[in-house]
Inverse folding.
């Protein structure tokens, strides 16, 4: 179970050929002309958590929803939030992205305490994050290309540069052929992939995925998870994922994307959450799970540890979950 401790305050389809030569997060790619991020936002200290929640509470008129949330996400780690409907998964995502403010407690992301930031600072801060909303949240009245390039249009890129960047990220999600199409012309899985492309277009160091596989068939869901896996394993991307699918967590924990073969392979013994915290250098490839219950963290640890649990609630949750 989560011990509620806070370990220090940070400063501040399986066939995806050719991926080894294409890296959407590659820092050596042509730098973006957008304004520089606030103090070290783009390069937070690697020895500190990239995301940290300390005793975070949040409530609404009907009462409190989150009760003292504590956890950390280290650079390159994938944190999967599991739990029944209404336990606070999406709220935690929105708090971490600065879309909501906590009632109390402290939240650090990329070295910045969100509670101390003004609305203008938060607006700039969010430009350096990727966020995949539930159901994609695409603009139906504009093309796929315009959806993906929506935020890039603020960077004063030339038309040629903008088109290149948009095609690049659509190629990453294998949807370059949809460039001139409209969201209404696409399947649900394709729309979800476009939303991921939009989130990645700015090459953010942190990406939040809110129910990225909700409502999708198993094959399409696996395609989405593979995209998330590629970002993690090829470029050390830090992610938080809220999902109702337990198999999403186990897939990310037990498999990795191999750039040599361009395929998903078994991880052959992923390190545990405990070993990651003891050696931060090993945390960069980790996938860990939080299980929420009634607005509190009921379990935090490796997916393997969750699978071996003797806790009756967790065994019931795993048996009833998809």
């Amino acid at each position: 179970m989560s011990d509620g401790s806070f370990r220090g305050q940070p400063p501040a389809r399986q066939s995806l050929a050719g991926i080894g030569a294409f890296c959407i997060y590659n820092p050596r790619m042509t730098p973006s002309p957008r304004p520089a991020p606030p103090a070290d936002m783009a390069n937070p200290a690697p020895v500190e958590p990239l995301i940290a929640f300390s005793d975070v509470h949040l409530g609404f008129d009907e009462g409190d929803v989150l009760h003292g949330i504590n956890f950390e996400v280290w650079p390159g780690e994938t944190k999967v939030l599991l739990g029944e409907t209404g336990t606070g998964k999406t709220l935690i995502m929105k708090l971490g992205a600065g879309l909501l403010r906590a009632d109390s407690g402290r939240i650090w992301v990329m070295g910045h305490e969100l509670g101390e930031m003004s609305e203008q600072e938060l607006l700039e801060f969010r430009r350096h994050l990727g966020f995949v909303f539930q159901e994609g949240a695409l603009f139906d009245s504009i093309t796929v290309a315009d959806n993906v390039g929506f935020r890039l249009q603020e960077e004063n890129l030339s038309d040629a540069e903008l088109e290149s960047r948009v095609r690049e990220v659509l190629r990453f999600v294998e949807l370059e052929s949809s460039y001139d199409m409209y969201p209404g012309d696409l399947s649900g899985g394709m729309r979800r992939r476009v939303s991921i492309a939009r989130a990645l277009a700015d090459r953010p160091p942190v990406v939040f995925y809110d129910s990225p596989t909700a409502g999708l068939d198993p094959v399409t869901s696996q395609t989405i998870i593979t995209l998330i896996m590629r970002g993690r394993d090829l470029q050390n991307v830090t992610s938080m994922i809220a999902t109702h699918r337990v198999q999403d967590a186990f897939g990310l924990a037990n498999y990795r994307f191999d750039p040599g073969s361009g395929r998903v392979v078994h991880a052959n013994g992923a390190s545990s959450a405990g070993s990651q915290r003891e050696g931060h250098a090993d945390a960069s490839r980790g996938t860990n799970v939080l299980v929420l219950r009634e607005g509190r963290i009921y379990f935090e640890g490796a997916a393997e540890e969750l699978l071996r649990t003797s806790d009756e609630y967790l065994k019931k949750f795993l048996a009833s979950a998809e």
